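step 4 of 6: structure.
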Amino acid sequence: MRNNLILTALATAVLAACSSTPTKTEPVKVEEVKVQTPAPVAKVTPPPVPAPVAAPVEKIAPAKPLDEAKVENGGFPPKGVAGALGQRTIYYAFDTFSVSDEYKPVAEAHGGFLGKHAKAKATVQGNCDERGSREYNLALGMRRAEAAKSLMTLSGASAEQIEAVSFGKEKPVDAGHDDAAWAKNRRVDIVYQGE
Amino acid sequence: MKLSAFLVLSFFCLALPARAELALEFTTEGVRQIPLAVLPLAHEEVVTQSLTPVVAADLQRSGLFRTVDAGGLIPVPAEPAQVHLADWRARKAEHVLGGSVAKLADGRLDVHYWLLDAVTEKVRLTRSVTINANQLRLTAHQIADAVYENLTGEKGVFSTKIAYVVKGGGKYMLKVADADAYNEQTVLSSREPIISPRWSPDGRRMAYVSFELNRPSVVVQNLATGDRKTVANFRGNNSAPSWSPDGSQLAVTLSRDGIAQIYVIEASGTGIPRRVMSTRAIDTEACFTPDGRSLLFTSDRGGSPQVYRVPVEGGNAQRLTFSGSYNVSPRISPDGHKITFVQQNGSTFRVMLQDLDSGQTQTLTDTQLDESPSFSPNGRMILYATRVGGRGVLALVSADGRVRQRFTTQAGDVYEPAWGPLP
């Protein structure tokens, strides 16, 4: 597929359609062109800190004893099990990386599960909202994943059972561009091997 | 100083096999634009693709040229002696580009072109090339490069290539195209994200970050053969490749030790990664300086992400950015004297330019959510990604902030642009 990109004007333009062009022509964008003097020195204005948006789930019940028969291949807890072990996602407030008190039971429950099931392995996947540098977000998501991993190891898992990775802002669950979408995207997903 | 804006508008009927419209606009402030007449080539009708509209579009896009109407010219001069320079002076042209094209028996084409100074009436440039019929656009870009270099003293970048990622239809595609976005080709199509493409200094290989292996890993792909090699796939994240100027090594970000840190690896993927610094902060987005001796990078070691420089062998890092609390994605100009990066200011993220000698910074863009700026190989333009109308688009701004353009797309999000080297 060629020429998917078209170099276009943001101009005070009159559409000049080529009479020889058989393809559908898109009107040239008519936009006001602002002429501004390049600022010689950037203004130093600290960005306002947005109010933290509440994490998008209700309070999590503590983990209940798990029916071992339901543990598939000793590998992972069944999805949808009641309590914290059934929850696979930890959400984060804006610009935070440590697991909040609200979500500690989730990390602890999975850490405990891994501690009891030595063969089980999990990946904790850090994610960010869409604002800012892709690479820097990749590093930020890693911090979230590492914080979750660290809490899980304190709850019984061995470090070898857990790989922390980050997908930065590349895998949003909500494609929106507002606070609510961003709150859902600032998360760590716990994914078991073999699931 | 009184500011003035020239709005120059041109329409080209591009009788191309690959159909597209090219419309362009730029604002200039006090930039002297060289008035140039681009004459049709004598016998240009023998080729399927007219060259001169491509030449004129290239030169205008630089913001440094204003083309003088050359319509209705009969007969079309084939040689400089056939040009009535007084007529062109009357039309306010300072220079005249012309030439001829001829088809050879074997199907190849002879393209002859010359550039005249309309004032002194001297021939500034004359050149002949024999090309294959499928090299017409490339030849047009090369003519534009020759004219640009002759009249500005700088290398032209019209025959360079750009890379970028297109996301759409559930796929991520790494694409390469000519600098004017024609001749788009897909380097990789994947169901998983692709970010951070970087051209090798010789333009033959591309390093990028792929999520295909369920973690970000660094891949080097040979552009001619399509051969791919995963060169960094350690536990955790592997990302942010930057080529050393000799093309033998890559600076990468690895999180094998927990937090994102910068390492240098062989571009072949062999050997043991060498950690450049040991910090407890995020260090990422390394970029080699043109002399290969230092790395620019982003770090939040001071509490907020800022741009630093460190010798490539490690040691003390020097902070380079001080205004604002979020300065990321640094790239250095080819002459090593300027850096571009993205600065957050409230809810906007904009491309900045900083002079390393004076420390002066300048906001170059008026868009809102800018990412991934990269210099053209002559240092004059900066290509970056931004969002317009909810979609990812690519945009260009001159390094002095005076010329601005935008690539718009028909579908999907376009992001992560990278400007390739001079051919």
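step 5 of 6: annotate
 - The domain at 68-192 of chain A is CATH 3.30.1330.60 (60s Ribosomal Protein L30; Chain: A;).
 - Helices of chain A lie at 104-116, 134-154, 179-185.
step 6 of 6: archive
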